[in-house]
Amino acid sequence: MPPRCSPASALFLPFLYPTLFRSLSRLPRAGLSTYAPASTSVAENGSDKTESSIANEEIPVSRLNPPPPPPDDYAISTFADKAKITIIAGGGGHGCISFLREAFMANGPANGGDGGHGGNIYIQAVQDENSLHNLTRRRILRAGRGRTGQGGNRGGARGEDVIIKVPIGTVVREIERIDPMVEENILYRQAREKEREYEKLVREAEAAAQASEETGKGEGEALRLNIDLPDPPEHPNAHKFVLYPGMSSGERRNLSLPRLPNRERLYAQPEPPIHLDLSVASPRPILLAAGGLGGLGNPHFVSKDRPRPLFATKGESAVRMQLELELKILADVGFVGLPNAGKSTLLRALTRSRARVGNWAFTTLQPNIGTVVLDNYKGRPIVKPRSSGVSSPSHSVIHDATLGSVVVSRQPDQVQMGETPEPRKRFTIADIPGLIEGAHLDRGLGIEFLRHVERAGVLAFVIDLSAGDAVKALKSLWTEVGLYARMREDEEREREASERIDWEGDGTNLKTGQMMVADLPELATEPTGLQIAAKPWFVIATKADRPGTEENFNKLKEYMDAITNGEEKHPSNVEHAWTEDCVAIPVSAIHGQGVDRIIHWTLGLLDD
Ligand SMILES: Nc1nc2c(ncn2[C@@H]2O[C@H](COP(=O)(O)OP(=O)(O)OP(=O)(O)O)[C@@H](O)[C@H]2O)c(=O)[nH]1
Ligand SMILES: [Mg+2]
């Protein structure tokens, strides 16, 4: 692998505004070590090349300045961050009707096996997955059905379980559920009601006949025979039985079905609506849909009066659910920037990422994640917690060419024992496709990708100093981010409102169609946009190696200072947004310069 930053590249680096760093008090002195202060200013060089489209022809090809990907590069892996799937748990297998038959034993005892239970559907967040594209292709996932029981008391096999593996950061929402057991329970209650009414009528007729006999009118028998009763209602559970196919019509007429035993599902079906935020790897799969119970074989119904039951029960039908999955990548830092600003180059400079880089807009079409390794994989503690004030100067930042990553390390003799909390060993960065002005109107690639930085602890706005007014660029980026935050808050409120609506009763009252709104606290009235604007943020002013960028940086720095001092409003115009310590850090990602500052500054913000 070529070195991250070739020694020759320093020759091309006239300066990175050394005088401006003094105000960045958070930054350790050691962190400044990779900067090569220069005595000449590029502005003085009088170069008028300030367009972002300037090709980096004079910079040697390296890991940070890779040759452009071929136009027919099909190596881009598929990525999906949204999926709608239907899951169908396995139904239970039917119970078996069978009798032992042996030589000299034509009519042996009942020996039908029970049906197998249906398979369950689980979900699990795992490290190895990073996209939902597999699920978007499958759409319907079914667990295995339980097998029917067999003669000779052999139970049916259990249906196979399905485990849906999703990336960490997936949010699962239930949209619709059809649980046949709930419907069956409602029908059962209605059928029982009818049965009770019928039993009452019979009892009343019996009492009238009894009374007539007692008064000596002798009409009791006649009355009993002439009772004008409706046809007896069907057994409430009749549909749950499988009948012996060889049953004679006489046997069918005299068949009296028993009450079914109360059976609990093997695994408790989670209450609706399911809402999971899988923000950490799940140690065990989480149950989404429980399989149906297997039916009972005919030996379960043997009694003194019924030695040869000619029926068994059917397996339970299983739950079907529609789920919406949304992947919101969980990175510690989110890069937000205009297209071609240099985000992916910066990600390469900070991590071992192989993100695509190209001198045109929308090179990145899907999020890239990189990990900044801080402990050289040796578990050495490295960074003091922020509460101790300014970052310790005892840390040094080096570019580890062998690891290809930036490593921040502390001298072993300076490791202090008993430090709490445990120092961070790595952090992750999400690089998303560029945002353009009007992205909220679906211009460019839209603002949907912002969901991958929505949950980041820190936002880093990557601004190309050679592409015109940096302050304007920052403002327009924040406008898009602010609009996105409001849109998300609106969506969240709508979802919450719809979850509060409950149909009255258990469904028996559906005629009235009355809605009840649960007695919950009032919903917030207006979206504030604070969800994102309250996050700590800073600006990474990149391509600082290009000539004529210092003035632009100066203006940006002034603007950032004004925000910190309260002279300027937060660029998103959101009230109470984070304006504590707004800085702009100039870097030259292509030369790997300034990236150590980003690491230190980020660590400071993350540990806050
Ligand atoms: N001179 C110079 N060029 C840079 C620097 N950083 C990036 N570039 C160049 O800028 C161009 C765009 O870089 P990318 O990293 O692909 O930009 P991006 O922001 O990821 O672009 P999109 O993915 O399209 O949003 C490439 O030609 C890089 O070589 C830098 O610090 N200095
Ligand atoms: Mg990119």
From TrEMBL:
PROSITE patterns: G_OBG, OBG. Gene3D superfamilies: GTP1/OBG domain, P-loop containing nucleotide triphosphate hydrolases. Keywords: Coiled coil, GTP-binding, Nucleotide-binding. It comes from the Eukaryota. Residues 37-74 are annotated as: Disordered. GO terms for cellular component: mitochondrion. Residues 77-330 form the Obg domain. Residues 331-607 form the OBG-type G domain. GO terms for biological process: ribosome biogenesis. It holds the Pfam family GTP1_OBG. Residues 184-215 form a coiled coil. This is OBG-type G domain-containing protein.
